[in-house]
Every structure is written in structure tokens, then in C-alpha cells.
Amino acid sequence: MSWASAIPNHLMVDLMEKIFFVKWLQAADHVPVVQPGLRGNVTYLKVHEQRQFEAQQRAVAHAQQPAAAPMDGVPEMSLKEVVEAYA
Prior knowledge:
The chain is 69% helix and 0% strand. 0% of the residues are buried. The N and C termini lie far apart (70 Å). With 87 residues, the chain is an all-alpha fold.
């Protein structure tokens, strides 16, 4: 005979409702809810957007620099600058 069978079900339910679940909810209210990996994902997205913005700013600055005009009228950019600007 185990201790669980010694206590009638209706009394166990009453104890759980009055004591256990109340304490559980109080403890759960103080725990911040954060999805696993969320900080890493947000950080990645922020860094990615920042790099994109910086690449666009460099492309604009490069385009505005007075330089010897190439024959086709398009300023020269390195492959890396082109990929960063249009990625």
C-alpha cells in the first residue's frame, strides 16, 4: 500500500487546488519567459541589418566620390562592395 492510495482522491485534488497550484502560479509569475535561442537570433538579425546598412552607406559614399569617370559612366566597385551593397 503506497501513500498515494492512503489519501482519497477528492482530498488530494482539494490539496492540489488550494496549495500546490497556487504556489506554482506564484513561482511562474516571477520567471521571465524567453524562447530558447531568441537572444542569438535577435543579435544575428541586428548585426545583419547593421552590416547591410553600412554597406549601402559605403556604396553611396563611393558613388558620390569624384573620381575619374570610367567609360560606361558607372563608378568602379570591388566585388565585395557590390555584393555587400546589393545583398
